[in-house]
Design a protein that fits this description.
By secondary structure, the chain is an alpha/beta fold. It is built from 18 helices and 14 strands. The chain has a 4-stranded parallel sheet, sandwiched between helices. Strands 9-13-14 form a 3-stranded mixed sheet.
């Protein structure tokens, strides 16, 4: 009497959805064995796909058959044994060698004859064809989703996969932090380490709950997904989801990434709070930092010449910078009055932009025509795949830029207005920033206020603010010498002139 191994398998893959559960398979196979008087010596259960070779339990079962512990296999159907040519071929080989004397299936007839082996090969082949066909259908479905602008994977940080609507929505809290990170880096004053610290301080972690380090920060800053464009299959596609940042902001960040190249390796614990902010008043070299006896000290790098400037502790440097920042702050009542002036400016300066809009729409239609011709050329095999991908990416990027310009064009004459209002709001918060202990934030705001004008001499930091902060400083110094209304009018006029010129 032949000895049989009972083998039951079910994977979590889509193709196995209609297959009996393992419990049901075992129940049915035990009943079949009893009905047909089969001697089952051991049962093997495996929860793994058979699409690729390498199932450990299946492999162990075949080895034990080779060692003579059984000479037959009982399974629900041939596809439970193999859905790939390697495993199927191994079963056929063991039959040819006489190691497997019998295969029993409740739903499939088999005898170890040439005809039986031929039919078994067909069954294995059908199973593989089903898997291959399903895989291709799945890929085709994904490609169709992508063409519709639906991202077929896990959305990056700042977005949420809405399983109910099978869409991607903005995570408002994290999206705001992502946008701030782009804005911070785009100013050109922050390093990748600063961005990493920025995320850590605001609780932004990887999906695995780990800190976002420089490499991951680089990936975030270079991901076009946040502009409404995503990459799939080596191609750039337009997404049907809300962008977090503008294409203009993204391009600025990319330019800075390109300019800086690969970041230099720095020690993990190297103090960097105010590095890159202040230069030496004696020799012009940048001020660096080092840790000694538990304290952080700043000093000249002394790269060009010997410099006699002494060290200064970080706490003292922080105190002085905080004092300088406070001097250019705007009083809350001043900020409110300046914002009122800005709103009045906005109300009287609105102009028609229909010509620009029409011109942009014509350009977009031309791009869409080019995209269609490009696709036609690729489908007709007149254009190589790589050329198609590159040209498509260029056209989509151009179209995205035009779309954003059109979205902003109604306020074109007031492009300066929003940056100015933002400056007013920031300038009114400088007292709070100066009093906080966030050194990174102080560094960023100090760079914005003073540019490269900060100098260190005899442990004292000095520097003249840049516009428009210089105007705010002069306004504060004029209190008591001029009327408040005149001070505000002059301050607003100087700031307005600056932002119109620079925006």
């Amino acid at each position: 009497m032949n000895k049989f191994f009972l083998y039951a398998r079910k994977s979590t893959d889509v193709e196995d959805k209609q297959v009996l559960s393992i419990e049901a398979q075992i129940t049915e196979l035990r009943a079949f064995a009893k009905q047909n008087n089969l001697n089952v010596v051991e049962e093997f259960v495996e929860k793994q796909s058979a699409k690729i070779p390498g199932r450990p339990i299946f492999g162990e079962m075949l080895k034990r058959i080779e060692h003579g512990e059984a000479d037959g296999i009982l399974a629900w159907y041939p596809d439970r044994l193999a859905r790939n040519s390697v495993d199927g071929g191994q079963v056929i080989y063991l039959i040819d060698c006489g190691r497997i004397a019998a295969l029993k299936f409740p739903q499939f007839w088999f005898e170890p004859t040439p005809q039986g082996k031929f039919m078994l090969n067909i069954a294995f082949g059908q199973s593989k064809y089903y898997v291959d066909s399903l895989s291709e259908n799945t890929k085709r479905g994904l490609r169709q989703k992508v063409r519709r602008g639906e991202y077929p994977s896990v959305a990056p940080i700042g977005y949420i996969n809405d399983v109910r609507n099978k869409s991607i929505i903005v995570d408002r809290k994290k999206a705001r932090i992502i946008r701030q990170a782009f804005e911070l880096y785009a100013k050109g004053n922050s390093r990748l380490e600063d961005i990493s610290n920025f995320f850590a301080q605001r609780g932004i972690m990887s999906r695995g709950g780990k800190r976002i380090h420089k490499t991951r920060a680089t990936f975030i800053l270079s991901n076009p997904f946040y502009t409404g464009l995503f990459k799939y299959g080596g191609e750039l596609h337009e997404g049907k989801y809300e962008p977090i940042i503008t294409k203009k902001l993204f391009d600025t960040a990319q330019e800075i990434l390109r300019q800086r190249g690969k970041p230099r390796h720095k020690q993990k614990n190297e103090p960097q709070a105010f590095c890159g902010l202040i230069s030496c008043a004696e020799c012009g070299m940048m001020i660096t930092a080092e840790k000694q006896k538990g304290h952080i000290y700043y000093r000249c790098t002394k790269k060009k010449m010997k410099c006699a400037q002494p060290y200064v502790r970080e706490e003292e440097l922080d105190r002085q910078l905080s004092s300088l920042i406070q001097k250019v702050s705007l009083r809350a009542d001043w900020a409110e009055k300046l914002l009122d002036m800005a709103e009045k400016d906005k109300a009287v300066s609105a102009q028609s932009v229909s010509a620009f809009v029409q011109k942009s729409q014509n350009k977009i239609r031309a791009i869409q025509t080019k995209l269609q011709r490009l696709l036609d050329g690729y489908l007709e095999q007149d254009i190589e795949r790589e050329v198609y991908r590159e040209q498509k990416a260029v056209l989509l990027s151009e179209k995205k830029s035009l779309d954003e310009k059109m979205a902003r064009i109604e306020q074109k004459q007031n492009d300066w207005l929003e940056p100015m209002k933002e400056w007013i709001k920031v300038a009114s918060t400088l007292v709070k920033i100066a009093r906080d202990n966030d050194l990174l934030q102080k560094k960023v705001i100090a760079k914005e206020i003073f540019g490269s004008n900060l100098r260190l001499a005899s442990r004292a930091v000095r520097g003249e603010p840049v516009f428009p902060y210089l105007s705010a400083l002069r306004a504060a110094e004029s209190v008591g010498q001029k009327s408040e209304s005149l001070i505000l009018v002059c301050l607003y006029s100087l700031a307005r002139t600056y932002f119109i010129k620079n925006c």
